[in-house]
Input
Amino acid sequence: MKPEPYRLQRASYPLSVIVPTRFRDLDTLGHLNNVALGSFYEEGRAHLNRAAFPKEMRHESGLRMLIADVHIAYLAEAHYPGDIEVAAGVLRIGRSSYVIALALFQNSACVGACETVLVVTDENGAVEIPPAQRAALEGLKLKAKH
Amino acid sequence: MKPEPYRLQRASYPLSVIVPTRFRDLDTLGHLNNVALGSFYEEGRAHLNRAAFPKEMRHESGLRMLIADVHIAYLAEAHYPGDIEVAAGVLRIGRSSYVIALALFQNSACVGACETVLVVTDENGAVEIPPAQRAALEGLKLKAKH
Amino acid sequence: MKPEPYRLQRASYPLSVIVPTRFRDLDTLGHLNNVALGSFYEEGRAHLNRAAFPKEMRHESGLRMLIADVHIAYLAEAHYPGDIEVAAGVLRIGRSSYVIALALFQNSACVGACETVLVVTDENGAVEIPPAQRAALEGLKLKAKH
Amino acid sequence: MKPEPYRLQRASYPLSVIVPTRFRDLDTLGHLNNVALGSFYEEGRAHLNRAAFPKEMRHESGLRMLIADVHIAYLAEAHYPGDIEVAAGVLRIGRSSYVIALALFQNSACVGACETVLVVTDENGAVEIPPAQRAALEGLKLKAKH
Output
């Protein structure tokens, strides 16, 4: 994955959450482990999904957002101790799926970028994204120009 | 990522390793967590790299294989308790990088597939893959037809 | 915790489960991380609880086994790659709680021991351990002499 | 472990660090997993050790602090999302070992307490704690009365 330059800039993303690194994120090479970095992207996705789909809406609708695809670019080594800012925004919205773009920033440098495809499902499988959720996702789109 | 059908078949891969699931791999939805599944692919990569690059070769050469890109397709829910078979093979070999293809099998079903780009580096950055390592990687290629 | 010598012997335990180490269990010091080792003990507990309390019994009774206390002695460094054998047995049984003793073996050496207090609860709190479960736990007691 | 009441009070501890919970800390029961909670205590220990033993001191002396024993009391369920405050202080100091006391606070409630024995070692094994380090540890003692 070669993300376009605007996706490596913090200002392109409507949301972000600060996630301090933990000693347990390190691996034997002394930098943040590739798999552990997945957990930072997960926090960004959860943050965006909580913003777009309030708990009541999810409980009422019985909808679940399942991950279908995760693509991560490792751009620089990330270090402990210290915080990582996980930036998140919506890249594309389809009929029953949407794509979240994420980027990790440490000391102002972009150390990684991720793209995740999520499918909205009920107990029978994929369903069309309801209008209210679609509007919420539209409001969290990435800003390509700024 | 939409992996070609042969990549969802165990027989296409030259290597595999059995990784039992752990309770800690579960998440609150009751199936194996997306990030935790990353750890299974990591075991497959480590297994292939140990086969291709014996410890002595790595120590002598001072080379490191750094992950540049990971792309995962989630194909079915995976469960605990039970084993996952992680199948691994080489998809492509470039000048200084190579691509490992991986797939997870549980109860004979392919529950996920992954593609990882690794770059061979020394302390100054990317280097050409040495001939012996290139030959080892060639010997571990995926079998598209079988 | 200074476990009695018989608790460092594999033969003292009625049950065991093999858990291969994972690269992700390592920390920056190059050996298995203290917190990650907790996951091995968790597998031993889950194994024992599945043996003592079959799924149907748990569903029917609505009982949950909650962890109240975990005490771990780190006896030697543990390494990757390689398997760890997690041995498990019941140390003591109280009115509503019981104690599981565990030990980790790698290459025949005991690398750690653990003692966990679990409390049997329903939705209102601690309850007396039902007779069938008590009998099952009695059958999984550690053997002090052998 | 039944920690004395003062150990469940935030004000007894000289140091603390805020660690946000992560989705990955949850388990299938919907609360923070027992093993994952170990990672919070690890952050508290690392925080205290960085305060007591500056990096230069550790590099110069070649000393390592190895964990010999961890004892955790689980006092209440902890939840996601939300922060956990990990409080840390020194409980006892021996010739070559010291004991760190820790407690976890979420929404002002103490949800867990931990006691960790660490041994100061060089490449030949346990060594006497150097005077400067001993003084630093003395300065980080828990306050039993306040």
About this structure: Chain A has a mean pLDDT of 94. Residues 5-138 of chain A form a domain with the Thiol Ester Dehydrase; Chain A fold (CATH 3.10.129.10).
